[in-house]
Automatic annotation (TrEMBL):
GO function terms (MF aspect): oxidoreductase activity
Entry's Gene Ontology cellular component terms: cytosol
Taxonomy, superkingdom: Bacteria
Name this protein carries in UniProt: Predicted oxidoreductase
Cross-referenced PROSITE patterns: ALDOKETO_REDUCTASE_2
Matching InterPro entries: AKR, AKR_Detox_Biosynth, Aldo/ket_reductase_CS, NAD(P)_OxRdtase_dom_sf, NADP_OxRdtase_dom
Residue ranges the record marks as coiled coil: none
Transmembrane segments: none
Alphabetically ordered keywords of this record: Oxidoreductase
Translocase in keyword set: no
Keyword Endoplasmic reticulum recorded: no
Any Pfam family matching the protein: Aldo_ket_red
Taxonomic placement: Bacteria, Pseudomonadati, Pseudomonadota, Alphaproteobacteria, Rhodobacterales
The NADP-dependent oxidoreductase domain, residue ranges: 15-315
Amino acid sequence: MKYKQLGQTGLYVSELTLGTMTFDTEGGSYAGLIGATGQDLATRMVDLSIEAGINIFDTANVYSSGVSEEMLGKALGARRQDVLIATKVYNTMTTGPNDLGTSRLAIMREVEASLKRLGTDYIDLYQVHNFDITTPLEETLRALDDLVRQGKVRYIGLSNFAGWQIAKADGMARLLGTERFCSAQSYYSLVGRELEREILPAAMDLGLGTFIWSPLASGFLSGKYTRDSEASGRRANFDYPPIDKDQGFDIVDVLTDIAETKAASVAQIALAWLLHKPGVTSVIVGARKEAQLVDNLGAANIALSEEEMARLDTVSALKPEYPGYLPTWRRGDTLFGMLDD
């Protein structure tokens, strides 16, 4: 397992993160959509992850209505001091007028609830789960800054922000002198490369680390889905995130070919592609079966050649969008030479 510096902090995180959205009981809120592990399997997955070198675990207050945080806390037990916990705030399990979002009231209430469920007195990385269009950024940033000063939170991150929102948040924090976001958690996969347009460039320019969620596009890149057989699985009940399946099947064909030459799984190659991409700090892997997790962990040992990366980059390429298809002129180029004449 490799470890990478998280943004401009002094914190190092494993290149794979264990995601715990599947940590739930059989009757939990997510069980009918993506499957549930139960406590025994959740603990086993934490054990396997730590043995493989993973040092960070990702959850959220809303995952399974808080059950995910509770199960993660129990699974870690006395090992909590040896690992990093990342959780999130924004969504809520209730419907009151002040429950949703990242107001000072909501943040202060939710952090206490998360700390209690996790069985800890601090959170290593507290992430804003979405951009709150109703709360001023100043209020959110000052509340998060207070949590860092109180020692309840070590670092703050953001998730699912657009590129301009990342830039605005960073600029506002610099202006106010508050704690800056050190990481961005976003969706990225071979069938979902949209973050390359604005989000990833913004994060890299401003020095934010990145955590990648749904790297297998909810199982589409697991190897189960082909043109001839769209296997039943998570996407049968929860077809998200949206993808272009025609291009997706072309990508799976290339993944399958590369996987066969390396005696690896399709999923391992898809994950390894992300691990080789510039700007990616850690890829979040999650599973509802032990075998799935073991397979995913093996991606850390896959090396892809420049030719293999190029094949995958080409088959998964985004269609150019404005202003991306405009030429980039530099002084000394033909256009400027003509103007000088």
